Amino acid sequence: MLSAHLAVKLQAVTAGCPQFQWMRRREEWERSGAPCGRIAGPWNRSGNDIRNNRRNLSFLLVAKNDHSDSACFACILLSHGEEGQIYGTDGVMAIKTLTTFFRGDKCQSLVGKPKLFFIQACRGSDFDEGIQTDSGPANDSMETDANPRYKIPVEADFLIAYSTVPGYYSWRNPGRGSWFVQALCSVLNQYGKQLELMQILTRVNYLVATNFESWSDDPRYSEKKQIPCVVSMLTKELYF
What we know:
This protein is of the alpha/beta class. The protein is built from four helices and twelve strands. It has a five-stranded mixed sheet, with no helix packed on it.
């Protein structure tokens, strides 16, 4: 099992969209992800609103930068969204379009390096009602070894951590911020220098699943749950 212990700088970009002039205001604004919470430490290097006419150019320019002396790239997006899409202040962007800028055949200086995307946004309109359980969590683990190759897939070494699973709302507290970002910052602050990334994100999943539940005067929006979703194409273990 290969591992990557990062000792050089991390490139990080954050972007949030506080206003949506083009989109009809939604009820229960707290359900989705206007900028909320705090990205701690090195995760909050820079940020700009995602705008329909400039965002592709902005991400393209970031992808074209020389990342040779960086061991990892991270992009944090906090906005509203639907499945496969994230909203800007005046339009919609496909998440696939965003990540394509950083593929191995598009961004040579990030080839073989982890490219991390943390996305706080709704992915649909379903609610997770939750279920009562007495059983403890399963304890499964799996390791996969890979032989060295001369070529690697252009889609390799991406990780996308979504705040919720496909089809579901992503919740936030108006005062404290989104459940996902709260949990992510808490685990990074406590374990960011000790645990491997997937261990960190598993703890984030656990915190969101067990420590949060919605409350509303309207029973349609009360006592709902949420579970984040991690999609990994990483080829190495990753430590910060």
